[in-house]
Amino acid sequence: MGNTFGQLFRLTTFGESHGGGVGCVIDGCPPLLELSEADIQADLGRRRPGQNRLMSARQEADRVAILSGVFEGRTLGSPIALLVRNEDARPQDYDPLRDVYRPSHGDFTQEAKYGVRNWRGGGRVSARETVGRVAGGAVARKLLETECGVDILGCVERIHAIQATLDPESLARDVIEASPVRCPDPQVSAAMIAAIDAVRADGDSLGGVVLCIARGVPAGWGSPVFDKLEADLGRGMLSIPAAKGFEIGSGFPGTMLRGSEHNDAFRFREGRVRTETNRSGGVQAGISNGETIVFRVAFKPTATIRKPQRTVTRDGQETTIEVRGRHDPCVLPRAVPIVEAMAALTLADHFLRHRGQTGRAGSAF
Amino acid sequence: MGNTFGQLFRLTTFGESHGGGVGCVIDGCPPLLELSEADIQADLGRRRPGQNRLMSARQEADRVAILSGVFEGRTLGSPIALLVRNEDARPQDYDPLRDVYRPSHGDFTQEAKYGVRNWRGGGRVSARETVGRVAGGAVARKLLETECGVDILGCVERIHAIQATLDPESLARDVIEASPVRCPDPQVSAAMIAAIDAVRADGDSLGGVVLCIARGVPAGWGSPVFDKLEADLGRGMLSIPAAKGFEIGSGFPGTMLRGSEHNDAFRFREGRVRTETNRSGGVQAGISNGETIVFRVAFKPTATIRKPQRTVTRDGQETTIEVRGRHDPCVLPRAVPIVEAMAALTLADHFLRHRGQTGRAGSAF
Amino acid sequence: MGNTFGQLFRLTTFGESHGGGVGCVIDGCPPLLELSEADIQADLGRRRPGQNRLMSARQEADRVAILSGVFEGRTLGSPIALLVRNEDARPQDYDPLRDVYRPSHGDFTQEAKYGVRNWRGGGRVSARETVGRVAGGAVARKLLETECGVDILGCVERIHAIQATLDPESLARDVIEASPVRCPDPQVSAAMIAAIDAVRADGDSLGGVVLCIARGVPAGWGSPVFDKLEADLGRGMLSIPAAKGFEIGSGFPGTMLRGSEHNDAFRFREGRVRTETNRSGGVQAGISNGETIVFRVAFKPTATIRKPQRTVTRDGQETTIEVRGRHDPCVLPRAVPIVEAMAALTLADHFLRHRGQTGRAGSAF
Amino acid sequence: MGNTFGQLFRLTTFGESHGGGVGCVIDGCPPLLELSEADIQADLGRRRPGQNRLMSARQEADRVAILSGVFEGRTLGSPIALLVRNEDARPQDYDPLRDVYRPSHGDFTQEAKYGVRNWRGGGRVSARETVGRVAGGAVARKLLETECGVDILGCVERIHAIQATLDPESLARDVIEASPVRCPDPQVSAAMIAAIDAVRADGDSLGGVVLCIARGVPAGWGSPVFDKLEADLGRGMLSIPAAKGFEIGSGFPGTMLRGSEHNDAFRFREGRVRTETNRSGGVQAGISNGETIVFRVAFKPTATIRKPQRTVTRDGQETTIEVRGRHDPCVLPRAVPIVEAMAALTLADHFLRHRGQTGRAGSAF
Which ipTM did the prediction report? Predict the structure, then answer.
């Protein structure tokens, strides 16, 4: 249970880090969308380990194969199955983990739930699980770009205490991607890199905050009660490994404002209703208002560290663990394409749901 | 769309603040649970306006009627329909809002989505919509208490900049409920009351943070990918009107720690695996670990304020609005039972889903 | 569980025959549809008991109240809650049924499932449960008529061995409704009436077959695998109390033809692709083909009869039962509006799902 | 949309007959079930073409690979992905079908819905699509056998007018499987074979009826309104290619009985409540009653025949078609394992749903 995301644009993912592979099935994608493996490979390349020295040294090309749902370069409207074979697995790295629980990892809880776990690599609780999300998200992104002109863009805003001051409206993809940590401020980016280098040398890890925006979402997506756009975005983000918090627009800091300071005044600009400020983050009462969608996701420091930690074994013995293997000392740079993928999946689903109920792709105005 | 919450324990709500009433249908509740209207009325009483001078003066007894699903004092396993009639509606209060959009409210977005809105009271974008949540949540809470010994408890941790320092493990319901703002620290509570009084006099509003815990959740609820327990809790909380942020355990502040500082060491205590600290907030890799579940929800300052604000009319004219009517200058005290309700609904659903897949109510150990 | 029907146009029903009432919540209805209680009352009037001497003498006006979702005569896009109060309940009629299971009724199975049942009236296993279906179906029908020009029409084709020979293409509502048994052939109708009169006098009951058509469905609704249009229609029909069989187009008799006799040749007529014959029943490979949809539903003879029957008590004693109360000796005439309602609900849902995925209400051609 | 079946035990299938392969993802399977590729291969072998001269000569070994969800021979509780590569595709066979619609096939309706189709092999409208169903059904069957002792068994009861007289209670798998047409009556089986041989020689096709039973289902599975067990079984069966009808228990013929003849008297036998007869087919009011579940599925004659047929081209020209390729003149023998698979999937889902709501695998008694 729980491996499907979305109602009309539905992603189902599968696979463990050690096994036949990881992948996904996308059901409900509109027909006639131009789609090739290259469209998907681009985002997988941004997610894969080994992009630079800040990341896990694990080397996986993560070559995706489209197994179904595409014919003569266009989607058929039938399920799109995508498969990425596992390659650079080193299962022997995991032998010491067979009978011991890594702190703040999913070893113990998986075993408590199921009575069993794939101790070679963490099973479904592995960064590798996100391959299916990013592959599916690439299809959602292509749909949103092509049919709605929506552009989704994430970056690293903070690592540990090193924070960039960013204007969501002026983010640009090439500037972000030019930074090894995906932070568009060059000076802050350099400081972040230094911090990650230091913590890696120390066998420790860091967390931080990803900022993500979606431009071009028309007014009208989402709904006013349980399936608020921010609720479904939040669910998508909080389902990413290591995510501990989500905020839309003004978020937690916005609680320090008075209503008269926080409200976004309406103006009539460029032939449509606009807000002067965007503390709402592009969503009001669960429905997009035509402004840029802005949200943030908090990621805890990577649980897997080299430093010795106290823990217990499966049979209840207290022990100390020093985890070997190839792990990211900071997941933030690789989390950016995952955040974007979950945003694309959420928005694509709400696009189709809105179109189903109203017959329109966007606003009634 | 979007008026149903949950997969096995499913709540569907309906109703506008001005119309025949508000209510809900609960489908999937286990049979043979003792249930009476009094069980539900208690939580509705904590949610209703007019409890004290800090809240909207709207007077509604919010009497709930069980229309179906209960027979001779016990649930049948069939749908439980609950109805609360509207009583103290003053629709004339809303006449000035027919053609103008209140800033940071749902007037504009509802109309952009549907091409129509119930301008008498905000339609589904009304605090009154939450009656169905709280009624349904009361049934979920009763189920969790009776079958699993789970206790859910919320309180106000911060209003504007006035913050209580609270230990989640030592919260007590009677202390919380003794405070008109539902803050268990008497001194902080008094300061909060003063702040709300001041802002109300000024025609303005305040936001803040609700802290909520769930004690007694066994290890094993939730699942490791999209339906992580924190993801579904987050979705539930972010679907509450005025919520702008959610965090589990260490949340956003936890990103300032290193992995070695953040990880929760495992120990073997009281015959079972425990963690020494609880920065995970009771959930690891999407699955409960048997510790107290701890999360926080950020609420923005109430959008409806008396101060004049700039906005536009339906036909695109720029204007100024001064909203009359009976509104809460701070939603936090009344948000507490709503947060608890959404927590109960989320946990009840995951309880049944876990039991369906594994045949056990709790942990495999 | 199991009280919701549909994915985008979703009906949730509630209520027992003895309790506060029966009703439904419709979620996902498009906005701006003109809708009044009169639209719904018409179909409820065709479903209610006591329409003529062939039916249960139970007298219930079945007055529907729209509690939410409609504003100034049009739908809002929010949930439409409909309530019908119970009136002519005679719970004492059911006292003898407290501890005994009526043969081929749901008394035993409900108790086996839930460990409890509402023995006053059968609980959810009551013809009265269908009020919510018919009320919801009336909204679906209005939507289909208004937005798509779809017309749904059912009639009684056979009662026991008395069969009408009907051409699905030439059915007319007024002719059908002029017959107390809803059979458009006057002579066959008279014979059916005589048969029902005879069996009622004998304390026994009859079954039969309902024929239903939907005209004006465009090519393209449905999907080719699990959610075939005939599969979802079949599920809807087989969920009606007393239904034991479903067939689309040529159905069971069509298995007596060879492929060369059965296939529907394509022709180009009136500017579009048509079939010369319609053994497919308007659906090919799960998707409507633009021809009239034609299907049949088999209803068993009413389980509740006055004749003495052998059965057992809750504590395992063998006994004999003679059921009193006011029951239909043949459900077929009243089943017609229920069949139409389930057809309307199924088609409305597939209309919205098709529009969501493709952006079109109908065919790509 | 529409490629997922089930709510707790969920099957998602993918793949076209010409492409990378066909397969499925099973989500929600309980953990710790022993499962190997051999368990799945057995049923795939019963479904594959080329088993004998009565079937399509297409030769595909249909080797299944378990990509995920199984570890050290047991299920993990995570998604089980199964893949069967396409092997013996002869796409050139389909070139003549690029611009013409085969009568009573899905060529036209797929194109009407999506505006595109994979004309090489029919896309999702291909017997090959059922590989994913049978693979998933094999896992469901293993679960039901292991945890509940449920045994599901199908056979061919009728081909064209050649009918076997079978007692559902005495069916035996080895006798059925000993017949090339899967009919347990040797004389009838021989007549069926002769009929298929004759029609194949003639370039024509035949339909018929599959009978299926499930033994050992406890009382209590299913629910009393929309998700009746017979409704979900019916949906599953009507979703199989070429299915045109479904009936449970007495079905259509049962409408020729009076209530006093049709009702199943209750008796107390072997320490539990039993029925003397089983016209209900093991389900009453949507819930299993502990008797053998008995249902039938009508399959039309194969649409693809060699005889010339009149049809139209994509640009509206009337033409004649003679379909080449390797097709079954009668799908019934190969439909048996598909019917069993859909029954297993439906029952496994209701098993888990019942356990989720009630905490019991079976009856309350």
Answer: 0.97
C-alpha distance from A6 to closest chain B C-alpha (Å)? 10
pLDDT higher than 70, residue B339: yes
Q: Contact at 8 Å (CB) between B106 and A284?
A: yes
Going through C135-265 in order, the beta strands assigned E by DSSP cover: 151-159, 162-163, 208-215, 243-248
Q: Tokens in use for D340?
A: 């069993």
Please tell me whether the overall predicted TM-score, pTM, comes out greater than 0.95 for this model: yes
Using CA atoms, how far residue B137 sits from B127, B317, B340, in Å, is 16, 42, 8
Between CA B8 and CA B12 the distance in angstroms is 12
- Which parts of chain A sit beneath pLDDT 50? none
- What is the band of C88 on the pLDDT scale with cuts at 50, 70, 90? low
How does strand D74-75 pair with strand D70-71? antiparallel
| pLDDT tens figures, A205-229 | 999 999 999 999 999 999 999 999 9
On average, the pLDDT of chain A sits at 94
Residue type at B155 in one-letter notation: C
CB within 8 Å of chain D, chain A residues 112-151: 113-118, 120, 123-124
Among the partner residues A232, A245, A257, nearest to B301 by beta-carbon distance: A257
Q: Does D252 contact chain C (CB < 8 Å)?
A: yes
> Per the CB < 8 Å rule, is C244 touching D254?
yes
Give the closest residue to D221 by CA, choosing from D139, D133, D344. D344
Is residue D267 within 8 A of residue C318, CB to CB? The reply is yes
Q: Provide the token pair at C16.
A: 């027992």
Instruction: Report phi then psi at B268, rounded to 5.
Output: -105, 110
**Is D70 exposed, middle or buried (CB count within 10 Å of its CB: 0-12, 13-18, 19+)?**
buried
- C-alpha to C-alpha distance for B304 and B121, rounded to whole angstroms: 12
Using a CB-CB cut-off of 8 Å, the residues of chain B touching C25 are 3, 12, 14, 25
Instruction: Return d(Cα D134, Cα A81) in angstroms, integer.
Output: 18
Contact B49/A at CB under 8 A: no
- CB-based contact A22:A86 (threshold 8 Å): yes
Is the pLDDT confidence value at D89 over 70? Answer: no
| Closest among A336, A325, A328, A304 to A88, alpha carbons compared | A325
Rounded CA separation D183/C12 (Å):
42
Q: If DSSP codes are grouped into helix, strand and coil, which group holds residue C75?
A: strand
By C-alpha distance, which of D45, D44, D49, D16 is closest to D328? D49
Indicate the residue of A10, A20, A76 with minimum beta-carbon distance to D114: A76
CB-based contact, D206 to chain C, within 8 Å: yes
Among the listed residues A308, A310, A327, A306, the one whose alpha carbon sits nearest the alpha carbon of residue A319: A310
Indicate the residue of A10, A68, A74 with minimum beta-carbon distance to D116.
A74
Cβ proximity of C349 and C9 under 8 Å: yes
Domains of chain B: 4-358 (3.60.150.10)
Q: Which residue of C has its CA nearest to B6?
A: C1
Distances B164 to B150, B161, B181, B331 between C-alpha atoms, Å: 25, 10, 12, 17
Instruction: Report residue B325 CA to chain centroid gap.
Output: 23
